[in-house]
Amino acid sequence: MREIDAGLIAEAVARMCVEANVNLPEDVKGAIEAARREEKWPVAKNVLDRLVENYSVGGGTPICQDTGAACVFLEVGQDVHINGDLTEAVNEGVRRGYREGYLRKSIVGDPLRRVNTGDNTPAMLYTELVPGDKMKITVAPKGFGSENMSRIAMLKPSDGVEGVKKFILETVELAGPNPCPPIVVGVGIGGTFDKCALMAKKALLREMGSHHPDPFYAELEGEMLEKINALGIGPQGFGGRTTALAVHIETMATHIAGLPCAVNINCHVTRHVTEVL
Amino acid sequence: MTKRVTAPLTKEAAAELRAGDSVLLSGVVYTARDAAHKRLCELAAEGKPLPFPVEGSVIYYVGPTPARPGQPIGSAGPTTSYRMDAYTPALLRLGELGMIGKGRRNGEVIAAMKETGAVYFGAIGGAGALLSRCVKSAELVCYEDLGAEAVRRLEVEDMPLTVVIDSQGNNLYETGRADYLASLKGIE
Q1: pTM over 0.80
Q2: Which of A72, A233, B55, B70 is most buried, taking the most CB atoms under 10 A from its CB?
Q3: Do residues B62 and B183 touch, judged by C-beta distance below 8 A?
Q4: CATH code at A248?
């Protein structure tokens, strides 16, 4: 049994909220720069240059003004004992990070009555128990311009892989210029309605351009990226090749009657930071 | 070629802009997004004056991050415009001539733009850090309780924008994509 103080968790979350919003991960920068090298359409090249310029501004200015809903993923070792209230520690971290980092508070306490909570809490918290005595924390601020363009479908088994491909392409097409392309496309296939959506979100946390371990799905990721980049939407929707930077697919077992498919879209500001306590 | 444009706009200046034009905008723009638009339209429906001069105005759909000490504003890129579509025609008919945002507009907005001679500019979505450097001053106008969604008066200088939909209804989201796809056929 290892003890972890809730205060340490709050400190880590606060630090990670700021870090994630101010510094774009190196793999995302690499993907944008690689796309810039391959892009031939002048308008698109110009937009991609501006994106590079944008994440190079520095000075603690958030890359994007939508500093997101604070999505926090915890993998808690089952041999860990937490001294204090875990959920409150995470929320305290979000509260502190968003205040100290001059980040935008974008959360309303009630979806219909819509009053801002003023501190960006509550966090969108996911907790998973895993073997071991460590705690892995990932903070992934999620902007809603792209979140709003995400979709889920309860496809039929007979729809098969073609149905999945059609749904992914249709989602990107419907999103068009709205989610700030170039986008990252997270796909969940299988599970239940809720598990499927969570897989799509977790797919966005993967290293850019990494592949599904199963060659069947790795190939599907490659095929979908190519098809999306043949749509012509381009950076900001002004036309061009670079509509998506990556397609990440996550899969799991499902019911004999179902083929759930979720597509979670992220913008080029695909932010996430991980620390292990 | 880049065109220099001053805000507030005149109908004549707006009429000269074409979808696809690169623009550097300087002058005064007002910020408003979802919640502020709702309140502005409620005022308009009651026949009350808006809290800023609406004639020729340019509204920037933005909810910036808080300013650090000594800086006028934090990160300040555009939010997705279609959420303002329900409110936009009413504001255009009151004299709003320019909108800055990102993403598609619906048919009613485009029809109202053609009727009133307004222009829709795209700022680069996700480039909030870069765009913040064009903002020279920011002053609260109203709705402080909305936090990031309050209406602010911004003085901007050389803000890089693209005309997405012009006053004739030409739409870069359609033509830009079609031109790119046509260029691929040309290569084959």
Answers
A1: yes
A2: A233
A3: no
A4: 3.30.1330
